[in-house]
Amino acid sequence: MLSRYQGAGVRRKLQLGIVGCGDIAGYLALLARLNPGIALAACCDIAEDRLQRFAKRFRIPYTFQSYEAMLNEQALDAVYLAVPHHLHAAMLHQAIDRQIPALVEKPITRTLAEARDVVSRAHERGVKIAVNYQYRYDSGCFVLARAVQQGALGRIYHARINLAWRREMDYFQQASWHASLQTSGGGTLITQGSHLLDLILWALGEPPRYAYGSTARLKFSQVEVEDLAQAVLEMPSGALVQISSALLSPRERPLQIEIYGERGIGLYSDRPWPRTRFLGIRPPRVRLPVGGVHALQRSLEAFRRWIQEDAPYLTPAEQTLNVLATIEAIYRSARTGRKELVELENCE
Ligand SMILES: NC(=O)c1ccc[n+]([C@@H]2O[C@H](COP(=O)([O-])OP(=O)(O)OC[C@H]3O[C@@H](n4cnc5c(N)ncnc54)[C@H](O)[C@@H]3O)[C@@H](O)[C@H]2O)c1
Fold it and tell me: Is the pLDDT of residue 214 over 80?
């Protein structure tokens, strides 16, 4: 049987609606314009001037200031949600109720409880929800994760992740939702660090058992969320994972992931280009599941293929529950000062 996306051998372009015409949506729209399989059918933002500028820049024919109106009036094959974190859950439910697949920006929702509801509702209704943890499609990260998954490094003893980025006050002023716990759910850990948490949990293939963490507000003491988070995760295998996520570095540093196994070491850095060096081993060659020059481009194309061709997407919603479970355990630990249990999710 032909799917709704196919007919007479010609596949129509995926009709995509973009919701939230802010920072990341600009990059994604640019890449979508380069993708011959995607048509930017409509965009939506509550800020009228931003909406119109965005539509003009990316030649998007229909604009909406209301998400609900867009869903009701526009025939869409999928939506891309790039709005503040506190809006993710409700918008996902609205899409699921209308059987519209969604690519939602990370984190899937602001809290684990919200994420569980979304995942179970999406399963009930048979709607595909993807979370844009695009580092899984980064060439260096993909090679590293596959080497771990294939056992090339042997038993993993420990990993270290360092995200040392630089932000100034305008980051919070231009998008004030970043500054509030109610709208963001947290600071650099949930907003930036969660990318690399997702990646390491995917590579190791299991969620941590315990988390021990601390957070601090050092540079931006006038906002509610942390600008530095550090944690140690205890994995069921006995391995330890150390993560540091910071927005206060005086100079922006390359992202670094180091994974130490019994047979070898994998060292990832995203500068000058994404790359993993291996010490002590030569892992089997692997190919990224989709082509493209940038992880975001590949993630978008993989989403299109998931919707139109049912080719697997690397980060379906249910796989991201453990990321939120881990983040919540780290935040709890930062409050209690104790090692906290990570509420495990049974993810396939
Ligand atoms: N994947 C990545 O690398 C990456 C990078 C940056 C941000 N993000 C994520 O993308 C999301 C958006 O972040 P951003 O930095 O682009 O934020 P932003 O503040 O730049 O953009 C958010 C946009 O949403 C709009 N908006 C707010 N309420 C709305 C509503 N009810 N309906 C429609 N539009 C509404 C705002 O007006 C704004 O234009 C977040 O989940 C963030 O964590 C992901």
Answer: yes
Residue 293's Cβ-side half-sphere holds a number of Cα atoms within 13 Å equal to 3
Which of 19, 23, 323 maximizes ligand 1 atoms within 8 Å of its Cβ, making it the mutation to test the pocket?
23
Q: Which domains does the chain have, with CATH numbers?
A: 6-134 (3.40.50.720), 136-276+317-341 (3.30.360.10)
The per-residue pLDDT for 41 is 98
Under 8 Å between Cβ of 78 and 35: no
Task: List, for residues 157-170, the tens digit of each pLDDT value.
Answer: 999 999 999 999 99
Distance CA 165, CA 227 (A): 10
> How much distance in Å is there from the Cα of 20 to the middle of ligand 1?
5
DSSP code string of 201-219: HHHHTS--SEEEEEEE-SS
Of the residues 93, 105, 183, 225, which should be mutated to test ligand 1's pocket, given the most ligand atoms within 8 Å of the CB?
105
**Can you tell me which atom of ligand 1 is nearest the CA of 26?**
16
Nearest residue CA, atom 31 of ligand 1? Answer: 46
Q: Which residues pair with residue 44 across a beta bridge?
A: 19, 64
Atom of ligand 1 nearest to the CA of 81: 11
**Strand locations in the chain, DSSP E?**
6-7, 10-11, 14-19, 38-44, 62-64, 78-81, 102-105, 129-132, 156-164, 210-216, 228-234, 240-246, 256-261, 265-269, 275-279, 340-341
For residue 47, the ligand 1 atom closest to its alpha carbon is 37
Question: CA distances (Å), 227 to each of 161, 180, 223, in order?
Answer: 16, 12, 9
Name the token pair of 178: 């970043």
Residues having CB closer than 6 A to ligand 1 are: 19-25, 44-47, 50, 67, 82-85, 87, 105-106, 132, 134, 175, 191
**Could you give the CA distance from residue 25 to residue 4 in angstroms, rounded to a whole number?**
26
Is pLDDT of 8 > 90? no
